[in-house]
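Researcher: I'm preparing a figure for a lab meeting and need a structural model of a single chain. I don't have an experimental structure, so a prediction will have to do for now. The sequence is pasted below. Please return the structure as tokens so I can convert it later.
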Amino acid sequence: MGKLDGRVVIVTGAARGQGEQEARLFVAEGARVLLGDVLDGQGEALAAELGEDVARYVHLDVTREDDWEAAAVAAKDAFGKIDGLVNNAGILRFNELVSTPLAEFQQVVQVNQVGCFLGIRTVAPEIEAAGGGTIVNTASYTALTGMAFVGAYAATKHAVLGLTRVAAVELAARKIRVNAVCPGAVDTPMTNPAALDPAADPAESKRAVDELYRKVVPLGRIGQPAEVARLALFLSCEDSSYITGQPFVVDGGWLAGVSVI
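Model: Understood. Here is the structure written out token by token.
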């Protein structure tokens, strides 16, 4: 038996990175998954690989109310109900705070913060109608501390954690648990955008990233998307049945302190 047998879960940002690994793991554990993303080619390919009996893809810009409403309809049409949500979609921009253009700051807020809010607002009533379930929001290590050059990102992830706590309190009576995963550095294109640059040397880029996190993370390495996915699974299944409103850090010990060795 899988940990998510009979469950129907929407995963946003599911075309690659953490969202892809969450979708793969959830299907392996018995769930049927609606994959949402704006990377249509990659999302459609992943859904086809997983199989239409257990996975469907929809274009989902998390900043748009109509996209959210269409995703909820698509999930119910395909699988009959919705009883789980992973608000994984997010973007990261590197900039000194005083040099950050307003448009850039607002873009990060729209995707990371407003997208999470719209997901909760749209899907929570569907989860309640299904008899209860879970919402997992992707916050960040930076939801619990500060970090230079990611001011917009850190601000939105603090907000996601606040939304998580409020939603947990408000939705508990509806049998919906709401928690947050707080990843540190994870080996995805968002963390290492040079990996997407055709002009960059992938091997050199990987060496630079590995060297950085070997120095600053106590466990001596960057995290892998599958490690975050396993935490999202825990928070989406009965193993976490008495947990709600909490942040769960998955960062190799980074928040505990930076190694000087």
